[in-house]
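Sat 14:20. Reprocessing the chain from the morning session after the first attempt stalled halfway. Input below, unchanged.
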Amino acid sequence: MNRYNRREFIKSASLLPFAAATVAGLGNSLSLFAAEDPGKRAGGPHLKISLNAYSFNKLLNDNIRHRGPGVTLLQVMDFAAKCKFDGFDATGYYFPGYPELPPDSYVKALKQKAADLGLGISGTGVRDNLTTVDKAVRAASVQHIKEWVEVAARVGAPVIRVFADTQMRAMTWHDVAKGCTREQVQAWIADDLRQCADHGKQFGVCIGVQNHGDFLQTGEQLMALIKAVGSDFCKPIVDTGYFKTKDPYEDMALVAPFAVNWQIKQSPFGEDSDIPTDLVKLVRLVRKSGYHGYLPIETLSPKGKPYDPYTVVPAFLKQLQDAIARTA
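Finished this time. Tokens:
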């Protein structure tokens, strides 16, 4: 876990303006909010590309729900290896029987498959709801995350993705928090995540908090929550497609020095936007931050448009590979 043991950014009592000190050429920083010193990472940035299983969401769910042939998680791993990805994000939703825990036989098969294919396991992820005022629902989410922390450790995933955004269809955190203030909601989410992080520490698995455009819409909001948790085993995951701001690259730059993982999307303005991610600009700010590790890509199916992951994924992989080469 040395890659995660940066100096705690909560040690300093003062806030340092982020500005150009972290990422040059990106313009003004996000107000005067500043994350404190994340600590220097040893060596230069070493970037590897991983495939997030969600890119095959429909086909994976077709198989799970017996509504067509679909594909299995292990078959998507075969495709990742064929495309020469470095790693694979074995998202928990697609394990047989989820949300129930997978049997040892499946965990062993997945680990062996990854080893045979030469794929690293870059992470996994679960569903949760921590924004609700319902304490029983939150407690169940905390227990679910803790259980899957242990699955992550068994699989060999160094990080598990969790949400601090409402994952309920057509609802926001305002709906489920029922009149509570943002400060109140952040306080209970931080308490819940701290419990998860304490459990993660026991198993060497970092809790990665992913911004998803609801409670966490900006880099400031994501970093404020991480700071409130105050654990080396709870770090941000930068989802490049879900910062709801005028210039999402500034939010990415703010969070990048503290990131434990990423979700690289095709557009910084959401799955239905035609504005493509400037991957060269993105990789430059990743390099500037000193980030080491995987850059998982997650391609999405835009509404009302055809989507074939077997063609979209390799094309997006090539674009990211080119951006990494150009910025080396």
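The beta strands are 47-52, 87-89, 120-125, 159-163, 206-210, 234-239, 261-263, 293-297.
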